[in-house]
Amino acid sequence: MPVANWRHFKSVSLGLLIRVASFTVIFALLGMVVQMMVVAAPIFAASTLERIDAPDGGRGVPVSRAESQDADLRQPIYWVSKGGWQLIGNPGNPWLWVHDQTAVRLNVTELPSDFSIAQMVGHQRGLAVLVGNRLEHFHFSQSTSINDVPAVERVKTVLVDSDIVALAGHPRLAVVALATSLSEIQVVDFRNPDATLRIQVDVEIDTIAWVSPSLIRALTPSGDAVLFVFRATDIGGDWRRLFSPTQYEGYPSEEYLWLPLPSAQAAESKYSVTPLIFGTLKAALLALLFSVPLSLGCAIYVGCFMSEAQRQRVRPAIDMLTAFPTVVLGAIGLFWLAPRFGEFLSALIGVIALFPILAVLGIFGVRALGWRWVRHDALDDWPLRLLPLVLLVIVLGAAAGLIGAAQLPGGSLEAYLLSTGLSISYFNSLLVGIVLGLAITPTIFSIAEEAIHAVPRNMAAGALALGSTPWQSYRDVVLPLALPGMIAAIMVGFGRAAGETMILVMLSGNTGILDLSIFEGLRSVSASLALELPEAPKKSSHYQVLFVMGVLLFGLTFIVNTVAEIIRSRVRMRVRGL
Amino acid sequence: MLGLSASMVSTLLLIGSGLFVLLLASAGDWLFLSSGGHEDGVLDRLNDVLFAKPNVENGLTGLFPAIAGTFSLVMVMTLFVAPLGVATAIYLSEYAKDTWYTKLIRISITNLAGVPAIIYGIFGLGFFVYGLGGQVDALFYTDRLPRPTFGTTGLLWAALTLALVNLPVVIVAVTEGLDALSNDLREASIALGATKSETVFKALMPAALPSVFSGLILATARAAGEVSPLLLVGAVKFSPSLPLSSRAPFIEFEQKFMHLGFQLFDAALFARLPPGGLGWVACIALILVLLIGVLNLTAVSLRTAILKRKTFENPF
Fold first, then answer.
1. Up-side HSE of residue A561: CA atoms within 13 Å toward CB?
2. The A134-140 sheet, strands edge to edge
3. pLDDT score at A4
4. N or C: which terminus of chain A has fewer CB atoms within 10 Å of its end residue's CB?
5. What residues 118-137 of chain B have any CB closer than 8 A to a CB of chain A?
6. Who's near B99: CB < 8 A, 6+ residues apart?
7. In terms of DSSP H, where are the helices of A301-381?
8. How far is Cα A486 from Cα A450, in angstroms, rounded to an integer?
């Protein structure tokens, strides 16, 4: 189509500009998801082992701790604990704990005496022992005095299929490099025993050692070196370690642990996402517990019983709660609620206990003010008329709660709970739930109110005309139609709560524990992202695991929102037909 | 039950105003009543709190850089969000054909509005700071390497990240505004011989303007209160200079900046509060709440104005 004139040219070029801008935005928003997945993906990569050529045959590579240990093979002492216990082992003889000062000797029955090779592996307290074709991984507890003998426990057993001539433990991970009599180099990962890496070489190998955490040096009998590069993520190519309980070195049982930066420099990082996801869900559900009654109660009243004019005034007033950004709510929780949480909780219990009485008092109070409560349009001013009454009940309830708490054995709620065995942490899930609930209330209110308001007024009016009370008209006519929309509202609120960051960072205590108690702290996915990502080195396993969590959080909120949106659009269609 | 749900409304209103009064009282008490207020006079005290040199040690003076940082962040963000968001909304509702993938994109954008800001934050860190920033440094600032210029957190990346957070909000608001316009307007404009772009910019946009502004102002309000992405892409506890300069383009895009919300977070977690710290915290929170409250009120009143105008007549 030829450009007819200037106006036409302008129209075409503006259209082009709009297309370019919008495509940029759409690609940026959708590309965001792809980019996060691309960053996260390498964490799932399998470990690799490959041979490399060193210019001088590897002689220039400095000798490491692991290789100097190689000489220890002749000497029987494997490990010395802080308490002075020495682990002594000779092939064919029982293992011994010998104390270096008192020369007390104890048999180590847990360790097999018929072993052929043994080597320290992983951080300082792991031992790999080869017995026949079984490669066993043991772990010692660190003993700090003569009185406690280090405990030995078997972590894992792996079967090897050929004749092993040399063995070297990885300086940091529970990984062992093996050389077989058939000139094969194997790397066994105790974290993921199914994925043994093998590489065949053309020369005979009789010594093997780790030069660095990623470099293996194998030596031929004549002293020539062959170098291998070993690459592994911190989860050893096994994605289940992110989600299922895992046996870590030094822990008696399988556990969920989130310790990306363990205190001991050499200890392995522990990336179990489960406690964080649990914390997120716990906080979000607690928030819903507080928010749903409040927001749905408001939504029902504003959406169903108020006149349009009054609704236009009240809705923005409640929406104004969003003017409290979550960081301000977090600060209020931190500085004003947390220091006196016991009092706050007792007052809250008092208020909640007294609140249902309001239902009765409210009706009689407003009736006493001369309102005919069956008249539908007379319900408009109720919230304002009830304001002093509600204030009174809150004050009374809080006072009753505080006085009641003082009467408890111990003099306060915390002391009483402590005497029953429950201690309240300074940062606890309940506090998070209350403040988070307040933060998501306007969201739930707004969507639920829209859903209720979308039900045509004449439906409720018909019920009223037939003699039902306003509440009956709501319960039997409006509620069944608005219920899916209200559920969608709750879902959106849940998504908000799951992704909320500032309140959780400031109030949750950020303790990554798997504990159902509402008096314990928690650590959420979002808070972990906010706190750890700036410190995580780019392209490290930690960084990648954090991106995995980001993708998970994105998926959770996106799916919840999508389902809610589908419900809402269906309800819209249904209501439109009425 | 009716009484109960009515009293819920009153309760919520009471909680909202209660929180506000709490902040107001603590801030007011600290500013005007507690020690120092009487000797220096109210104006000196305000001057100290706002304009004195920011005190890193106990941080009880010099709020102005944080306010300025918040403003410049929101301003730069709006520079990105306004044209891009409006253009995308116009494309989706006026230009794009109504096919299944257009629908998919519209639904996705609606749902992206509910995705937590921290997700955008990690994208901003991974893509803008480490990715784009590193590239920009490698191309244009080779002389300053290895000290990063754009390859680190800063105003530009924070603004871009916040722009991404708020784009879906703006797009949804403007699309809704455009969809609400009656088709007569479009048809009449085309019938009079207007081109497509004239229809959009001279007939539809003026009618949809209130919803555009309401969407933009809501986005700004949200941006001013959103702190979680800033933890990853930009704000710092103390910056010696404002991200503003006297030379064009007047804003130093690579500069790190102070932010009201971040100050609050920092005071909450890392600073050991000196005596009077509570009042200081209340002060920051109050300014932030007032800022966002004013923005929200503007948006709300605009929205009410739209709702009142049931029919959208052509203003020309």
1. 22
2. A117-121, A126-131, A134-140, A152-159
3. 64
4. N
5. 118-123, 125-127, 130
6. none
7. 308-319, 326-332, 341-368
8. 9
Nearest chain B alpha carbon to A443: B114
Residues of B in contact with A339 (CB under 8 A): none
How confident is the model over A129-144, as pLDDT tens digits? Answer: 888 888 888 887 777 7
Asked if pLDDT for residue A66 goes beyond 80, the answer is no
The interface predicted TM-score of the complex, written ipTM, equals: 0.88
Give B123's contacts (C-beta < 8 A, 6+ positions apart). Answer: A32, A35, A36, A550, B161, B164
Q: Tell me the average pLDDT of chain A.
A: 82
> Where along chain A do its domains lie?
49-271, 274-576
- What chain A residue is nearest to B104 in terms of C-alpha separation? A562
- Which residues of B, range 218-247, sit inside 8 Å of A by Cβ? 221, 224-228, 231-232
Mean pLDDT score, A362-388: 64
The answer as to CATH 1.10.3720.10 being correct for domain A274-576 is yes
- Residue B166: name the closest of B220, B211, B92, B127 by CA: B220
Structure tokens at A444: 């739930």
Residue A200, SS3 per DSSP: strand
∠ CA B223-B227-B229, rounded to 5°:
90
Instruction: Considering only the beta carbons, identify the residue of B111, B112, B116 that sits closest to A553.
Output: B116
Q: What is the 3-state secondary structure (H, E, C) of A414-447?
A: HHHHHHCCCCCCCCCHHHHHHHHHHHHHHHHHHH
Task: Please indicate whether residue A301 or residue A322 has the higher confidence score (pLDDT).
Answer: A301
Is residue B243 very low, low, confident or very high in pLDDT (cuts 50, 70, 90)? Answer: low
* A529 interfacial to chain B (CB closer than 8 Å): yes
Distances (CA, A) of A324 to A115, A154, B74, B188, B273: 67, 54, 17, 45, 22
Nearest one of A383, A115, A263, A49 to B8, comparing CA atoms: A383
Give residue A374's pLDDT band: very low, low, confident or very high (50, 70, 90).
Answer: very low
A233: which DSSP letter?
A: -
Residues 6+ away with beta carbon under 8 Å from B195: A7, A8, A10, A11
Residues in chain B: 316
Name the strand (E) or helix (H) holding A28.
Answer: helix A6-40
For residue A540, which residues of chain B lie inside 8 Å, CB to CB?
A: none
Average pLDDT of the segment spanning A3-13: 80
Exposure class string for A19-53: b at 16+ Cβ within 10 A, else e: bebbeebbebbeebbebbeebbeebeeebebeeee
Architecture of the structural domain at A49-271 = 6 Propeller (2.120)
DSSP assigned state of B236: -
Closest Cβ opposite residue B118 in set A319, A391, A530: A530
How far is B40 from chain A, CA to nearest CA, in Å? 27
Six-digit token string for B41: 């006079």
